[in-house]
Known about the structure:
Oligomer: heterodimer
Largest sheet of chain A: none
Shape of chain A: globular
Number of helices of chain B: 10
Largest interface: A-B, 19 and 25 residues
Distance between the termini of chain B: 33 Å
Number of strands of chain A: 0
Shape of chain B: elongated
Strand order of the largest sheet of chain B: 5-6-7-3-8-9
Largest sheet of chain B: 6 strands, mixed
Helix content of chain A: over 70%
Number of helices of chain A: 10
Structural class of chain B: alpha/beta
Structural class of chain A: mainly alpha
Strand content of chain B: 25-35%
Amino acid sequence: MRSAGLLWREYRFERRLFWxxxxxxxxxxxxxxxxxxxxxxxxxxxxxxxDVLVPGIAGLAVLGxxxxxxxxxxxxxxxxGILKRVRGTPLPASAYVGGLLASAVQNAIAQVAxxxxxxxxxxxxxxxxxPLALVAFTALGVICFAALGIAFSHAIPNSDSAAAYVNAxxxxxxxxxxxxxxxxxxxxxxxxxxxxxxxxxxxDGLAGAILTTDGFAGxxxxxxxxxxWSLAGLVLAVRYFRWE
Amino acid sequence: xxxxxxxxxxxxxxxxxxxxxxSVEAVRGISLTxxxxxxxxxxxxxxxxxxxxxxxxxxxxxxxGGSVSVLGHDPADRSRALRERIGxxxxxGGFYPRLEVGEAVAHFxxxxxxxxDPAETVALVGLGAEERVRVRELSGGQRRRLDLALALVGxxxxxxxxxxxxxxxxxxxxxxxQTIRTLRELGKTIFLTTHYLDEAQALADRVTxxxxxxxxxxxxxxxxxxxxxxxxxxxxxxxxxxxxxxxxPTRLLNELTSEALAGGWRLEGLTVNRPTLEDIYLExxxxxxxxxxxxxxx
Lengths: 244, 298
């Protein structure tokens, strides 16, 4: 019971820290919205393109709020010696990491909700036709990318190089995974890469949930792929976690 | 110093501690005991195994061999009960840069079952005027004091100080020493590592000197100097400095002066020295770096 209280406290603390760091707040919160408005204004001339773009941006937001934010954050916390300090206190590792994750997850969920609402109000997409599938794919995407973000932080040597490492993964992934345009127009090799990575499947799942009534059954294979990546991410994140 | 009952078990017992990193054996069989309420100094040059030893005690590293007991716990178990009773001063770092000093101390205080008052702890380490200052704006010395405040705020019985004054200017060192003396008066057990001899002499009730991962000397700092009781007698002859060591300088001087008088020459530059702890420390550690070099610090 006391551990749950400590987790809650750590989560509240992480929220406070989040708002103290304007650049992180920008990347996690404003960037996906700015991209949505820009790309929609410049390229999206019809509903078909918006049907691709809105779920794509929602997927990007999940990736940014979890994978990108945690890869940066954990690298920074390790480099600053904060992880080491926390490890020397009575705070259980589960409460600490749980609070860190919960804060990132909150950002991701708020983003998806906001983008789905903007999609409906501004761009005329339906309210999600399969809300349960929306929740399921958002939750699975959050677990998957949060785990992969922590796992990826183990490969980043220091905070100075974090941006280079993260962008080397983030930018190509969003370009080939159908964030801005349908992944069907890709060259076969790149399409194969996109099929192997989890983001495209998260986006397919979100699109199915928003646009169809059988979002879950229609994207069962996507769900399986993301679940497998989640498993791999969790194993890597835990196995190679370094406190200093 | 708080007087403790002799029956009270020691704060720390280490027996034959070993720690290897790959093929490198950093600690090769260290044994020591720290009584409750004492200031214990682990002294040695850089690379002697001090930090490895203290990190095993703190629970940061797993030992390769030997047994370790800290307040009755094996730190390798990483039990929360133990971490509630110890305070760790890191070698700098470990701060949230965007927090205010008071916020940082209050945040960590809440992790302990019976913490000290955060504001009073901030004042104790001399940061009372900086309570509303963000950590990133603190000077190097102020950060070290914050480090101490974070280690103290849980009101621990045992405090680990790993090279607490490395990089300090003399005034800051004196202030840190005064704080450590205050902690001892509060009845805390203090495990201190340092490569500064004068620091061990000034603060520690007992000292263990380590070198290359093994204990080379131990005892109260005052007693270490008289271990073999050797005096150093030196003079110049034919432009060369000649040195003798003896436990009986009277006899040696008698022999030397008789010889010189008989031979009709003088003992130029004759000196007789009682070795200080520093001489012994340097002698014990001479095969490594001749002097403990100070890490660059802000």
